[in-house]
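Researcher: Good morning. I'm working through a list of sequences from a screen, and I'd like to move beyond sequence-only analysis. For each chain I'm collecting a predicted structure so we can compare shapes side by side. This is the next one on the list. No need for commentary yet; just the structure.
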Amino acid sequence: MGTSSFLTRAQGLLRVRNQLVRECLAELLSTFVLILITLSGSAQKVTSFETKGNLLTSYLAGALAVMVGIYTAGGVSGAHMNPAFSFAMCLVEQLPWWKFPIFVVVQTLASFMSAGAVYILYYDAIWHYSNGTLTVSGPRETASIFATYPADYVSIANGFLDQVIGTGVLIVGLMGIMDTRNKGVPKGLEPVVVALLVLSIESSMGSNCGCPLNPARDIGPRVFTCVAGWGLEVFRWVEGRGQGGD
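Model: Good morning. Structure tokens for this chain:
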């Protein structure tokens, strides 16, 4: 009886009543989980010399991570996890414009934190694979674990178009899934369908730039690699680099 009473009081003290704070915490947690799984899939592929993962497993990790993120916070904030999606929600008046910059900051912060967590998780593997040197290009580069980089043949214009089309397909697909006037997705299975949508885009549009589809997913980890030892080169368009991806 005493234990039950203590737990009830603790729950009351820990309960967050402010709706905006609840939504921000939900976005923080869901985005953290999304990027943690996504980058871990890439780290496992790269640091194992593709003996314990490949391009398909990294794509699956990214797609399934979207599903986990939506199940984690979909009922609180909508689990946007992506500034592009938050922007789309503002355009259709499903999210107030004043919340947009707040969501973007939270999503980017969560991505930065996730990159730090993956760096800690794979610390020994990264340093072993890289022979003790953190590089952005070359045969033992490790920057692509955290952020996406274009293939050697991709121009800036083509890379920009690649991301516009890929992200556009993602948003159109999400809008179609959410539209109640369309063929309905069985209740509770929406995150699974969204994961399949992401997987289809990754599998068909990932070769040019690694298919990030999510500004927060790219910016947060890229900033982390800059401050963690890879340097400012992570922001430059450099040839000869591998490609990370979702």
